[in-house]
Amino acid sequence: SVTIPSLNLIDVLGYGYYPDFTSFQLDGKKVNINVLTSSFSPITRRLVISTENLVTLSNYVNSSNNRFLLSWNHQAISVVL
Predict the structure, then answer these.
(1) Mean of all residue pLDDT scores within the chain
(2) pTM exceeds 0.85 for this model
(3) How many domains does the chain have?
(4) In a domain, 1, yes or no
């Protein structure tokens, strides 16, 4: 038997918005994001979502659609010229 690890890190490149780390939901249920290990840089437009056991992948192996939905709110980056 193989143990499927959890998904602990998601790295989003080219993300042009300020994420609201308090608004994250996994399949419509609130999930707490570790703000000490997660980050966003408006300069590099890199969003790092790092939370232990963020998604328990084994929960989706035998489900009907094998998918999960992680969603959150964000705000646009203001550009000052």
Answers:
(1) 93
(2) yes
(3) 1
(4) no
